[in-house]
Write a structure and sequence with these properties.
single chain, 479 residues, mainly alpha, 88% helix
């Protein structure tokens, strides 16, 4: 019986472990995924190719662990790296996959970050879609009270309104973001705030203010090794110097910016610098050099580039939705199969429970039968004890009628009888103890019966001894 209970206990424990699944992952491994993702993200403005490399490593490890948050973040960082490498279609595809995993993990903050990245991606191609994604991200960020993300979204919303020439609205967003980033001591995003403010003031023809912000951003970006930011700042500085007819200063920042563009390997920045170089040489009336840059520019059709990119991303989004629908159908089928498995597992468990109940019921019946037998045995012992008491009483009457000599012998016999009575009570007490142990299930049934048999035999021997003593008192006295 004990073996049966042990087997059932092991079975139920195993079933519980199986039901919990295999979602638990090593803390050290998940920390490695988080570290790789953070490292990849930190390199986005310095070395976007390294960002892609580190994020790919994080993605591989996260997939082995089935770690949804790690997978979602790896895809998001991959998208950021490819955005800075001017690969918008691949970037958008990474974002779409990333947000899917954040939804699976019920990670609202992760979803908001991806929608923010999508808004940035559409910033140069489709202002309305960019605002849709950014506002969607802002609603979630406000819900989870993510101050850093809210500030980043203010920065990106300002960029969209700058492109729409809504400069005052853009400045309001930039000022709000600057205040938050200063409180968070976020030097990297403060560089972007200064750059964007400088660009807006440049557009408003407030060149003095623009120059202050741009130079502040330029110095901070170089100090922080933000190569992408330095290249972007120098583009605006070059245009500002050209408007002020400071062509030598413009040429210096263009040369520096082109050097940083080579470091970050951004084709779009390269295109923008060729266009800026053309404008610089044209304004300096160096037409031969200007013609050279013009030819380089028209090797890339910017308008077609923007249109095709937007169309490609829409196609990717539609394809992704279709794939997600197919996956959802597969998940529904898997859930149905899983529910069927659970049903049969429940039936199996119910059957096993019935077997256990049957075994327990049989055990109770056996205990009841044993208890009845022990009760009968106890009654028989009590009857025998009553008989002994009557015999003792009769002996006392006989002793009263005898001589003093017999009274002395009877006294000795009475003492001996008390001793024998005490000896009988010992086995009886043992029997009662065994009955209690059997009730509590603390002694094996067969062992209990054997011990009871020994007690009854002992009582029987004492009774026989008492009987012999009563019938042959002289022999007993001599012994």
């Amino acid at each position: 019986m004990r073996k049966t209970y042990t087997f059932l206990l092991i079975f139920f424990i195993s079933l519980t472990v199986y039901g919990r699944g295999f979602d638990d992952v090593s803390v050290n491994d998940t920390n490695a995924v988080i570290t790789l993702n953070k490292l990849a993200f930190a390199n986005r403005l310095i070395d976007p190719e390294q960002t892609v490399t580190d994020a790919t490593k994080a993605l591989t490890l996260a997939k082995k662990l089935n770690y949804y948050n790690g997978i979602g973040e790896a895809y998001r960082v991959l998208g950021i790296g490819r955005y800075y490498l001017d690969q918008p279609e691949k970037s958008f595809e990474n974002y779409l996959i990333g947000v899917t995993y954040f939804v699976k993990a019920n990670n609202l903050a992760g979803e908001a970050k991806v929608y923010n990245n999508m808004g940035i991606l559409f910033r140069d191609h489709d202002y309305n879609r960019s605002l849709d994604y950014l506002n969607k991200s802002l609603a979630i960020a406000q819900k989870v009270n993510d101050r850093r993300l809210i500030a980043s979204l203010g920065l990106n919303l300002g960029n969209v309104y700058t492109r729409k020439n809504s400069f005052q609205q853009a400045l309001r967003f930039y000022d709000q973001s600057t205040s938050v980033f200063e409180s968070l001591k976020d030097s990297v995003n403060l560089v972007q705030c200064f750059l964007n403010k400088g660009f807006v003031y440049f557009k408003l023809n407030q060149y003095d203010k623009a120059l202050i912000f741009l130079l502040q951003a330029h110095d901070s970006a170089k100090r922080l090794d933000l190569n992408e930011s330095v290249a972007s700042i120098n583009l605006t500085l070059a245009t500002l110097y050209m408007n002020q007819r400071k062509y030598n200063e413009a040429e210096e920042v263009v040369k520096e910016g082109m050097a940083y563009t080579i470091l970050v390997k951004d084709p779009k920045l390269d295109y923008d610098y060729k266009h800026t170089s053309y404008e610089l040489e044209f304004n300096r009336k160096n037409y031969e050099r200007a013609l050279f840059y013009l030819r380089e520019i028209y090797k890339v059709d910017s308008t077609t580039y923007k249109t095709n990119t937007s169309v490609q991303m829409k196609l990717i989004e539609a394809k992704h939705r279709q794939e997600e629908q197919i996956k959802e159908n597969e998940r529904v089928a898997e859930r149905q199969a899983y529910d069927r498995s659970r049903f049969w597992a429940a039936c199996t468990v119910a059957g096993l429970l019935l077997v256990v109940i049957g075994l327990l019921f049989g055990n109770v019946k056996r205990k009841a039968k044993t208890n009845a037998q022990l009760t009968m045995l106890n009654e028989e012992v009590l009857r025998q004890k009553d008989n002994l008491d009557r015999i003792n009483h009769h002996l006392e009457e006989i002793i009263d009628e005898r001589t003093k000599d017999l009274q002395i012998k009877n006294k000795k016999l009475s003492e001996h009888s008390s001793y024998l009575s005490h000896q009988i009570r010992g086995p009886i007490a043992t029997l009662r103890g065994l009955i209690n142990l059997e009730k509590e299930g603390l002694v094996d049934q067969q062992e209990c019966i054997n011990m009871m048999d020994r007690c009854v035999s002992e009582i029987d021997e004492k009774i026989i001894e008492m009987s012999d003593m009563l019938h042959n008192p002289h022999q007993s006295s001599n012994s």
